[in-house]
Each structure stands twice: as structure tokens, then as C-alpha cells.
Amino acid sequence: MKALIAVLPGDGIGPEVTREGVRALEAIAKRHGHQFTLTEAHFGGAAIDALGDPLPSSTLELCLASDAILLGAIGGPKWTGPDPKQRPEAGLLRLRKELGVYANLRPVAVHPALRSASTIRPEILEGVDLVFVRELTGGIYFGAKTRDATSASDLCSYSVAEVERVTRVAARIAQSRRKKLTSIDKSNVLETSRLWRETVTRLMKAEFPDVAVEHALVDSAAMHLIRRPADYDVIVTENMFGDILTDEASMLAGSLGVSPSASIGDGTRGLYEPIHGSAPDIAGKGIANPVGTILSAALLLRHSLKLETEAREIESAVYRALDQGLRTADIASASVNGGKSVSTREAGDAILALL
User: Fold this and answer.
1) Which of 22, 104, 143, 171 is the most exposed place for a label (fewest CB within 10 A)?
2) Of the listed 219, 266, 281, 323, which one is catalytic?
3) How is the chain split into domains, by residue range?
4) Is 141 an active-site residue?
């Protein structure tokens, strides 16, 4: 297979972890005879510094011409100026909109070797295996914004069509799993959430009668996600709620550093990134965990390139490495060798060796 993959290293630890994801893709290509063209481009704070724009036109053109995009992380205190359009996050929101990737998939599974890395009791983590589907291009992040000297506002709006399309993505995933979908909203307070709940209820009854549906308020779900996480299978929710709850859920797995994500739309092109941030406090120290990025590369192979065997090979190598004691600093508490941790590069080497 031939594929063009855009690589956006970004800021902070982004270039460090992205480098390991690229190495994994190159290893898979060599192993299976694929031709992957991996092309780097400026994005985020690094693009502001170099070109004055968090999403330069050249970067957007590359992404639109690519089969998939691998992203590291963006942002940092250096780029928190008064103009919101000149912040790295503005570039990410624009990129998602331009690519039409409206569904963010965030799988959360607790690897047995990392149970002790979580702050949750091990017995609560037994059997945790869930997938978040977060709506990605609507809601309060994209609504009209106002600001004056004494007040500010952010508009949250959703259309029926936006709710329907992300619900269909979540429902299809649920059909391939335990046939259980939880929709999260705040319908006791918000009109957008009442629209969300009504739309999900109607669509699921009409198109996915084989999937059991439950509705939950976001505050209650935040509690039960820690209290009884194994009860969940597939969770669908709006943009801001999903942003918050998926970071909470990542701690079930022990660390933000091990969690991947895929952002997809109606076509095959997707945006793949670990869910962690740029972590400027540890940037350049070579201690960041590349597992989330490497697993994101596996999702890229699965969803955009339809290479399921290759995706499973990367995932298997990661899980075997963890079983054999691979630990970076963020998950050293789950170490079997007295708390010893390895560098970002050493972690990548160990995983590649198992490919």
C-alpha cells in the first residue's frame, strides 16, 4: 500500500513522542512492504513562531492531501497571548473543522500490568474496556463568542444533523462490542442537551434497535465513571463534556501517557493523537511516555488505511512491552523492577524490538 501521512510534531513533548510513532509506522511499512510517505509540517505554537499562524496554509494543504495525520501535542504558556486566534488551540479547532473529523474516538482499557499505576482500587478496574465517542466540531468550543470589559459569553449550539451523525458512529461501534450505548448530557438544565437526548432516543430506536441505550447526566456520569467504570461500553457525548470526561477516564488506565485517540469523519482520512498535552515542564528531558502516540499510530493504520493486521501488531508489541516491565516515569509506580523507568527513546526501542 502507498499512503501519504502528514506528521505534525507540535510543541513541548510533541516532537519527542511523535518521533516514536513515526518509527513504529516506518517499521510496519518495512515489515509488510508498504510505502508510507511521512511529511512533517509546522503546527501549533511552533507554527506561530515560524510562520505567524498556528495552522499555516501550507500545513492545511498537506493535511487535506494526506491519507491520515499524526499529531503530537500543542500549546504551552509561551502562546497564551490576548488574541485567541493566535493561540495553538485555535489552529487545532480549525484543523478539525477543515478535515471534517466530527467524531473523536478514545478507547480506555486497563492493562493488567498497569493497574497499580492508577489511583483507583484494582478491584474497581477489573474488566474496564470502554470507548468514548466525543462530538468534535460543534458545541460551545465553536459557538459565537463575545467579550467586553465586564462580561463574556460563549454560545453552545447543536443541530439535529450534528447529533445524528456522531450518534451513528457510536452506535456502529457499540454493535461490534457489547451492544450498549450510554449517552451523556445535561438535559435537566440545557436546551442543547434536551435536543441531544431526544435525537439520540429517536435515532437509536429507528436505526439501531439491537443496541441498548441509557441516558446519563454529565455530573452523575463523572461520579459513576470512577465508581463503576466496568459497567460502561460505548459512551457518546457532546464536545466539552467529552473533553473533560475522557481526561478523567484516562486515569483509569494509569496515565494520560498511555491513551490514544482517533478523530474521524465520513471518509477515511483521520487525525490521530495521544490525548495528553504538550507538558512543557518535561519537554526536552527525554522522559515522556510515547505509548499513547504509538497506539494512536495503530489507530491510524486501522481506521484510515484499513490495515487491521498491522494495527494489531503494534498494539500487541506495546502490550507485551508493558508485560515485560516497560515503564516510563509517569507509570513507574506500576514497575516490577523497583521503580526504574526508561527514556522516551528506550521505550520506543523496546516496542520496536517486539515488532
Assistant:
1) 143
2) 219
3) 1-101+261-355, 119-253
4) yes
